[in-house]
Here is the input.
Amino acid sequence: MQLVQRGDPRAFELLYDRHGGAAYSLAYRIVGKQGTAEDVVQEALLSIWRSRLRYDQTRGSVRTWILGIVHNRAIDGLRRSWVHDRRRETLDVVDERFEARERTEVEVARREEARNVRGALETLPDEQRQTIELAYFGGFTQTQIAELLDQPVGTVKGRMRLGLDKMRRQLAEGVA
Amino acid sequence: MSDHTRYQDDIGAYLLGALDDGERREFERHLAGCPECQEEVERLRTAADALPGSVEQLEPPPGLKARLMAEVHRDSNVVALPARRRPTRLVAVAAVLLLGLVIGFGVAQLGGDETRTVTATVAKAMPRAGGTLEIAGDSATLELHGMPDLGAARVYQVWLQHGDRLVPARTFEVGRDGRGEAELRDVGGAKGVFVTREARGGAQVPSEDPIVSVPL
Here is the structure.
């Protein structure tokens, strides 16, 4: 990361090789289209390349930092351009997706992690999981979720907080 | 309900990005002065940070890395990409196109000084196809019509010619009406725009001679 911050293209290439797959997978999950997901990843990673010095080691791993930036870009895009047009999900072509090949240790680890976190998410009561997914992957605000689900905002807030807390415990116990 | 309790209820929504801008600013103001909320945010952050890792893990399309690295090298003033094609191949492509496999070519100056439209040259195998490239500064839009449907496994891919190299740009699909378009960036300095048919996900090196070409 330090080399990336010094502007070394080879270091940036390594960063892409290590985290590009996770970044693209996240963007695709949020925007649901190959071309848009590519644009999101390209913009997010170029902003990292061009800003260089903003990574703060005290705020977690490089991967968490990168995925946070990709998430923000993707959600911004959703909120700006599509106004939550959920039709995209049904119009989308499943063939566009290429499952990651388990060729390297990094890819094996990334799929293993995905299985673990999905496992933790699946232990949540449906309404907590749904609320968390609508917020994080759907880009909806708590007020919008309350309207969508016809529930008081307070209930939605509670589901998010309780759900995250339960997920945290599951992940810590390694039960997932 | 005390102020603190009210804000504490927002912690989940804050970590998931589900507060609107006003709510978030208000929450952050409270958070800055509340050690109890800070602790809770850090505690739940581990779960929120794990969420992006839960999605189905996919292979990024190969063209993505090439485009990204081309931008990065351009920023560093390093020569763009390692040579992938022999110059003779492009000369051969150009010759083939000139030898009559094409149905039309023309350049028109339209609009103001900044915008120009170039007619695309299309392979004879696609008799109904045609299109234009509209260039505005460094960006361009390639609009094609009469393009055959490639089915689910293949897509059209755009290439930019820089020097004697073809650099992969984006992929696109055509609708049922045979129309398709691709927004292109960094067209300034390119000597031409080409289209090939590639496997879905795109390629780093063209697998066939271009079926559409726009010399610049």
User: Anything to note?
Assistant: Chain B has two domains: 3-54, 62-215. The radius of gyration of chain B is 25 Å. Chain B touches chain A through 49 residues (CB under 8 Å). The longest strand of chain B covers residues 154-162.
